[in-house]
């Protein structure tokens, strides 16, 4: 019995080591592959018809404003007012009646002067994969600028390019590294899951009729 337990423990340690190595490799690979296509500088962003603003909650669980949300909104405003983009797809989670990321983004953008008819709503952006693939399959965009924080843009741009899109990332300002510790730790696993999704051809949760962005 002791020998069996010892062998099981060894197997567990081996699998743990393999898992850690894979996560490290996935993060390095995605950062490397996307590095040439993400930037904090508007000057580096090509003129593109449409930007994809990735959603997050407007407030934190404690009711405080979410810096990730407002920094992304500011980046979208700056990019739109620079003339580099004409439309903004706001894509996020609307899984419950009282939680609507796309609507929160739309209303906040309008508050800062972005015309309503230049904002396109995607209520089915439950995951980054969904938001990116739907931008192509539902909204017909083969070229776009993705707006989020750098760590998120690396993954989103990588996913978009793996799905045949000419994608670039405009990085919103980061948040305090301590405030964003949980999010950054979760991102390590999310980058590893990208390869799982690609390997098994995971598709967005919802499809729908095509929507033309004129």
TrEMBL record:
**Protein name as catalogued:** YdcF family protein
Which Pfam families does the protein's record reference? Answer: DUF218
Q: Note the superkingdom of the native organism.
A: Bacteria
**Domain named DUF218: residues:** 52-189
Could you tell me which species this protein originates from?
A: Chryseobacterium herbae
């Amino acid at each position: 019995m002791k020998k069996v337990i010892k062998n099981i423990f060894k197997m567990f340690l081996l699998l743990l080591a393999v898992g850690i190595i894979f996560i490290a490799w996935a993060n390095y690979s995605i950062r490397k592959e996307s590095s040439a296509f993400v930037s904090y500088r508007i000057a580096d962003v090509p003129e593109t018809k449409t930007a994809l603003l990735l959603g997050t909650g407007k407030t934190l669980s404690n009711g405080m404003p979410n810096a990730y949300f407002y920094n992304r909104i500011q980046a979208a405003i700056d990019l739109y007012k620079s003339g580099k983009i004409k439309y903004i797809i706001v894509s996020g989670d609307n899984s419950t009646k009282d939680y609507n990321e796309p609507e929160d983004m739309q209303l906040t953008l309008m508050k800062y002067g972005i015309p309503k008819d230049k904002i396109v709503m995607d209520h089915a952006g439950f995951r980054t994969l969904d938001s990116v693939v739907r931008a192509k399959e539902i909204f017909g965009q083969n070229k776009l600028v993705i707006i989020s924080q750098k760590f998120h843009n690396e993954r989103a741009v990588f996913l978009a390019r793996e799905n045949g899109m000419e994608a670039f990332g405009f990085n919103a300002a980061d948040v305090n590294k301590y405030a964003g510790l949980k999010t950054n730790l979760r991102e390590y696993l999310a980058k590893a899951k990208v390869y799982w999704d690609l390997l098994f051809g995971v598709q967005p949760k919802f499809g729908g009729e095509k929507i033309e962005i004129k």
